[in-house]
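Structural biology now treats backbone shape like a language. To illustrate, our science desk offers a sequence and the tokens encoding its fold:
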Amino acid sequence: MAMNIGDNTLIELYGTDELEKQRKRYRKLTNEFSEYFGDSESLLYISVPGRTELGGNHTDHNHGKVLCAAVSQDTISAVKPRPDNLVKLKSAAFSDFFEIDLSELDSRDDEKETTASLIRGVAAGLKSGGFITGGFNAVVYSDVSIGSGLSSSASFEVLTGGILNTLYNENRIDPIVLAQIGQYAENIYFGKPCGLMDQLACAVGGVLAVDFRDNRNPVVEKIAVDFTRTDYVLMVVDVGASHADLTPAYASVPIEMKRVASLFGKNILRDVDEETLRKNIGMVRAEAGDRAVLRVLHFYSENRRVELMAGALKAGNFDEYLRLSAESGASSSSILQNTIPPGNMSYDQPAALAIGASNVFFQTRGCGAARIHGGGFAGTIQAYVHKDHFGEYSKLLKELFGDDCIVPLKIRDVGVCAFSS
């Protein structure tokens, strides 16, 4: 999506109440580009939202169903093309420049789990798809912070694809293709197994019900819903737990589901009939273990729940939607088991504490819902808090996790977009 920068653009992306803040943010971005690269005339700007998962926890990697949404927190970049294949990128999150030569697009072991691997991986994905790549200078800002649970990596991957799409491909690459290329970069170059939900929400925008049965051609339905018209504040709560060293924990979920699928001669769990699995559950337990059985049961029930949650939103039944959201959270915590990292013998369990304290708070007031957010194990939980209780809830959670732990979310209807100065 291409547009000219101006107040109308900023209002569409961030809302009227954010206008002055975003004016200053883009001016600062422009000034920093000038400082590092000199010429700031005729800059291209790219914005890509973060995402929040609403339902379908850990289903996409086995071609399940999800409900997700783009949020107003975003990754932005000021960009100009270069005449060579070099990418020179300055990020506010890091003190050094990244410099990557796109003439070399093979995956590198020494770049695993780095920003450079994502840039190289996106370029490689575009190249293999028959698209054009080239060098650029860029300064990147992001308020989709690492560990926020709003998918900073997917936002950056789609940003990189959006830059190359606009500079070299006349903005003709479909957002779903950009999402798929971002997933490829994260899986193969970065080295983290993930499904397609994060990148798809960032690329397309809005509230999305997605069926990944055919991962190459996912069925994407955009749901017209305005959360601000409800009596609830949607938020994530940063519990302060690090994602460091948790890649094996995340990877264990798709691995165990696919291990069960292989027992039935299939590659993914979506291709295994649920009734057939239930009739053979003793064999599955013996071959794959109890935790794998539980995670499989979560997968099937979560797929059904996504359909019900989407239906509740379309019908305007927000109370039923909240009930299902809480049910999803309970399934993730007790059946999928992605609240406490495997093998954790510590008393330090902040995500579990945040969910438990939230649920007690909501139960005593008769409304509200909380669930683990995204991959789980660390990072953030998601909560729906009644506006009348927002102050009390914030006070409780801030006492536990610090003054900056509450991150209210605003749904953004626009995915990846480019505009000029």
In short: The first strand starts at residue 2 and ends at 4. The mean pLDDT is 91. The first helix runs from residue 7 to 14. The radius of gyration is 21 Å.
